[in-house]
Amino acid sequence: MNSVPVLTVKPWRALFDEKFHVVVGNLPPTQEVTLHSLHQSEDTDYWEAFGHYVSDAQGRVTVAKDESFGGTYEGVDPMGLLASMRPIPGSRTGLRFRIKEVHTPMVVHISVYRGHVSQGFREQVALASFVTERWYMAPGVRRVDITEGGVTGTLFLPPGPGPFPGVLDMWGGGGGLVEYRAALLASHGFAAMALMYLFPDAQKAATIGFHYIENAFRLLQDHPLVASDKIALLGTSFGASVALSLAVSETVKPICCVCISGSHVLTLKANQSIAESFKVMKEHVHKSRMDENNCIIWRDTLLPIPEDSDLKVDVGRITCPLLLVVGQDDTNWAAVESADDMTQMMERAGNSHLLTTLSYPGAGHLIEPPYGPHCRASTLPHQMKLSFQLVAVVVLWGGLTKPHAVAQEDSWKKILDFLQEHLCHSVKPHVHSRL
């Protein structure tokens, strides 16, 4: 009687940024098998990843140490079943994986199939299957809607009495209210406010500017469960430009600042609207170009980096620790050149000791928390279309799956360490409990 293969995933229920361990046992020795993951997104699109393995002499496949010989990832990759996910064949074009409902888990079905399979998984009979849950909110994390003072956002509070160090979390040109990073930050002990500051309504968007972001900082600072003297700024893409602009202002005093895939060429001045901040890119939109797949490449709209310090954020005035995260294959933003110029500006100003730069070969623009699917290109967000008055196009963000996944995992750990170092030296950091 043949033994029945056994598939285990531990922990089966975990935070999104935790590793899991996938093992298949009770296989014949040297058996070719395919491990396959499948997730249906909130938009009902299906995402999958798969790796080709050969069982060892004991009839086992251990993903953390065994090599994948093909599939959506190759080599030893413990989290390849998540990080290399892509839309299944026949899906809509231009998809980007985003989580909207952070209070529910990402459910992933993991299955093992006989042989090295690359397509037609629905027509195959799995040898064994397992369902795992990936959460953005640890037990006890509280989600609070923020609508005070005209500010729209969501505050995530760790469990416990506080006060907690705070992080104002700002995403980029895609706009809307993006909560999943803030939820993860709260799971690691930070009171994190996800801020909505780019709105789809053009008339409303024209009224949003520096004072709106400043008010959001004050709201976070004044919350009774937040340590008012321990607030950080965290921004991605255009959110990084906003974070830099606030960090050099006279009115906002963050303890530290994290900028991911950003540039100092776009500025947000005290009496300026968000829409006006995009003026530089709009004036140079003719520099954008298309790749061989008709994906738009925007990075040249910020080049060359101006020499005049009045035309960029004067980072020489930054007085708090600054962490830059850069993907060297960022095809959407001139992040590499901007980081180089910021380094030179800070060296000339004598504050380069405050700067730490993480630069990753093969990583693209969308550097997010780890183990999320790499997105090389996706449809232009609605908010950006309003800003540039363009028809729907697909934007090339850049990056290759494996090095981009490495960048996400490494940078997230170092971002958390950076925040804890500068915000938590006198506030005991909360360590999330196992889900």
UniProtKB/TrEMBL annotation:
Superkingdom of the organism of origin: Eukaryota
Pfam families: BAAT_C (PF08840), Bile_Hydr_Trans (PF04775)
Any GO MF annotation of the entry: fatty acyl-CoA hydrolase activity
Record-level GO BP terms: acyl-CoA metabolic process; fatty acid metabolic process
Residue ranges of every copy of the BAAT/Acyl-CoA thioester hydrolase C-terminal domain listed in the record: 210-423
Occurrences of domain Acyl-CoA thioester hydrolase/bile acid-CoA amino acid N-acetyltransferase (ranges): 17-148
Active site residues per record: S237 (charge relay system), D330 (charge relay system), H365 (charge relay system)
UniProt family annotation: Belongs to the C/M/P thioester hydrolase family.
Designated name of the protein: Acyl-CoA thioesterase 19
Provenance organism: Oncorhynchus mykiss
